[in-house]
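FAQ: What does the model actually see?

It sees only this:
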Amino acid sequence: MPVSPEDIKNVALLARLSISTSDLAEVTERFGRVLQLVDELNTIDTSEVMPMSNPHDMEQRLRQDAVTETNNREALMASAPAQEQGYFLVPKVID
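And it is asked to produce this:
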């Protein structure tokens, strides 16, 4: 698919990008190569390939949902510089 410098200027405008005039020819050529690669990928026959969300055919192993730590809230709150009703007090950061 041929790409013109005007196409690149339009895409750059839509993407809010600034492309200098000296770089326009190189960007046009690179963009054209990307589109050529996409066209090449579109020619591949994928009719026999099942849709998948992950290329690895694995099941996710899940761990047992069990409590592994004890409740030590009192010990943690003891080191807090300020607390109220079991919550940490912190300085206001948003006006």
